[in-house]
Amino acid sequence: MKSNTKVQNKALSMRDALNEFKSLKIVESKDDSKDWRDGFWNYPAFVEKVFRKTIPFSLIFVFSILAISFAYFLQSKTFTNFLKSSSFSTEQYTEGMIGAISTFNPLFASNNYVDKSIESLIFEKFVYIDKDGKPTAGIAKAWTISGDSLTYTFTINEELHWQDGTDLTVDDILFTFNTAMALDSKVSIGAALTGVTITKIDSKTIQFVLPEANPTFFEAISIYIVPQSELSDVALNDINTHVTLMGSGKYIVEKKEPNAVYLADNPYDSYYPKLKKLIFRIYPDFASLETAMRVGDIDALGSWDSEALSFMQEYSSFGVLMKNEEFRNRILFLNIRKDTLKDKNVRIALNYLFDVKSVLQDAHIQGDVMHGPYPARSWAFNNQISYYSYDSAKAAELLTTAGYTKNIETGYFESKDAKILSFTLSYLDNDVNNRLVDAIVKAMDKEGIVIKANRLDYNQISQQTIVTRDFEILLYEIETTVDPDQYNLWHSLKINDPYLNFSGYQYERVDILLEDARKTTNEATRKTKYFQFEKYLMADAPVVFLYHPTFMFYFDSRISGVDMENINFSYERYWNIENWAWNQ
Questions:
Q1: Domain span including residue 462
Q2: For the chain, which residues score pLDDT lower than 50?
Q3: Residue 405 has what pLDDT?
Q4: Does a structural domain hold residue 37?
Q5: Which of 254, 483, 531, 542 is the most buried (most CB within 10 A)?
Q6: How many whole angstroms separate alpha carbon 459 and alpha carbon 507?
Q7: CA-to-CA distance for 185 and 194, rounded, in angstroms?
Q8: Minimal CA–CA distance to 97: which of 256, 325, 280?
Q9: How far apart are CA 248 and CA 345, in angstroms?
Q10: For the whole model, what pTM was predicted?
């Protein structure tokens, strides 16, 4: 009992002491730094107070920061690599392209880069042309040529099949060439075979008889063969709209969508590619292509526009191959039919005023400067003549001779009646051309000549301007053969549509040289003719030669086998697709 009472009394005394302590008024000295420290350590409460008072602006600010951060994350390599790794397959390859899908009908000449690229995988050519312009085996595995170079006899590979498993025969080859020649020469690939007689000799042999020797014959027959079974019942006038998807190439079309094509390994050919599935995604512009790249949708992409692909410099994990396309020629055609360009002195002066290298640099365009109708490595390139290079003094002399003098006050060349020397430049409206023309306008303005830019859409330039030859200066790209024959570009019989002598250039001596050079297969004789042709052409200056564009192909560095050394055109880059593979 006593012990319990003692404990109770002790507890009461402690309680009384606590109550007495609580009642005490404690006076503390004021410390100025304490408020600052309290504010610092209690910043969440301060931020919350400011946040609440500034609603809704604070909410907008926070969500903006989150949106920007998320956008940067989507564009980051980490996110791209995550997506790639989560859907990675060593048997699949996806490439992005700019453009549109057409009919994949190889019987028609086309400038559609997308079509040409995919056609090279679906179809197989009768013969192929190597980087030196020499024929190599395709569907035709061997051939003989008569002594007069008029008769060509081909033996075909009898082990080839269409992608439905049926045999590819001489009848298919005969049908393809006869159909190509029967189609309208404006669009057909068979125009170069006019006058050629084609005969089936037996089940494995076909013969071509030419009316005269033609050194470009092999390039003329380097065309894709199509199945007679699919097209024989289609009217000639309807073939251009008929979608042809069956060939004998390395891949078959599994599915075709408006903006994508899905290919699979052809089970009936003799190739065993490691990439069993190919996907081509087609985008309307570079912004869409860039987005696809950043979110990991594609493994490769390519273009001639280095400026538009500048974002690829961020991707060190991607390799790049560049191909200078020597047989793609960007040219300014000077319309000799127009009064302002009839005087040769004016045309030559324009050539002297063009510093093409500087113009390309100003326009951020990658390419090799052209000096004449042939690339420097061509056996027909004449290195014994002086090609035009920038010389404003010579240009001024020539323009003075033509009746134009530079006004000291304005800086522009003027005619005797005080009209400023000016020209209208027509061109296809796209990013590369816009930058190029802007650079040209600026460069010529400094030289005292006014260039008026005339932007045209595809239909305007192809269906109106070119057909009617209604232009003063035309910026256009021409694809030539590897062989130096350029009869269709400069002969006086080719000045009207559908031919390519856009300038309207006519000179009898040039006509004779071009005609004689294509009547023989003797390279030495042809070289002499072409050297003379180049002298006359450069002296008459019906064009300003600009540059050969450079194609840049970016691809995931884990892909091996990609090779563009042995091709002439960028759309031929899948020539060894069976060797492409993902490296783990």
A1: 328-549
A2: 1-14, 17-18, 21-22, 24-31, 33-34, 36, 39-40, 77
A3: 96
A4: no
A5: 542
A6: 31
A7: 9
A8: 280
A9: 54
A10: 0.82
Residues 127 and 115: their CA atoms lie apart, in Å, by 19
Within a domain: 50: no
**474 Cβ partners below 8 Å, 6+ apart?**
332, 333, 335, 425, 426, 427, 465, 466, 502
pLDDT at res. 329: 97
pLDDT at 104: 80
Measure the N-to-C terminal CA separation of the chain; round to a whole number of Å: 87
What's at 481, amino acid-wise? Answer: T
User: Is residue 524 assigned to a domain?
Assistant: yes
Place of tokens 């690229």: 117
Distance CA 377, CA 406 (A): 39
Whole-angstrom distance, CA of residue 528 vs CA of residue 84:
56
What pLDDT shows up at residue 382? Answer: 96
E-only strand ranges, 412-458:
413-414, 422-428, 450-456
Read out DSSP for 26-74?
A: ------HHHHHHHHHHTHHHHHHHHHHHTTTHHHHHHHHHHHHHHHHHH
Are residues 537 and 424 part of one domain?
Answer: yes
- The whole-angstrom separation of Cα 436 and Cα 443 is 11
Q: Are residue 584 and residue 444 in the same domain, yes or no? A: no
Rounded CA-CA distance 559/580 in Å is 7
- What pLDDT does residue 235 have? 84
237 and 262 fall within a common domain = no
pLDDT at 244: 76
Q: Residue type for 523, please?
A: E
Q: Residue 215's closest CA among 510, 528, 517, 531? A: 517
DSSP-H helix ranges across 87-212:
113-122, 170-182
